[in-house]
Write a structure and sequence with these properties.
single chain; 0% strand; mainly alpha; globular
């Protein structure tokens, strides 16, 4: 992992933690500190990696829905490719997606055992 990708993954993990704790202000402050498009994209790569790996463990219907949401997040990312503020919105939504996946997995786990 390069330094930039490692830093992006750590920021992604922190963003998810803040969102899971319902600390929207903290999440916004964290993202405001990521100033370059390059660094924003590395955070997004970290979030995408987390979401895709964790979605694989969901039941089939929820996994399919998560895949669709990932495609929509890709469209949002592409629409804001040159806009740091728009990319921060994408990261916020991507972090919320990870929180949703974890919530769905928790519910599924309760029903399976």
């Amino acid at each position: 992992m390069t330094d930039a990708s490692g830093a992006g993954r750590r920021t992604a993990d922190e963003l998810v933690r803040l969102l899971a704790d319902d600390d929207t202000a903290g999440a916004e402050e964290l993202l405001a500190g990521v100033t370059t498009i390059r660094d924003l994209v590395f955070v997004g790569a970290g979030l995408t990696s987390i979401a895709r790996s964790e979605a694989r463990r969901l039941p089939p219907a929820q996994r399919a829905q998560a895949n669709t949401r990932q495609l929509r997040l890709g469209v949002l990312r592409d629409a804001n490719r040159e806009d740091p503020e728009g990319l921060r919105g994408w990261l916020q939504r991507a972090g919320e997606e990870v929180v949703l996946i974890r919530t769905q997995q928790s519910v599924a786990d309760r029903f399976t055992g």
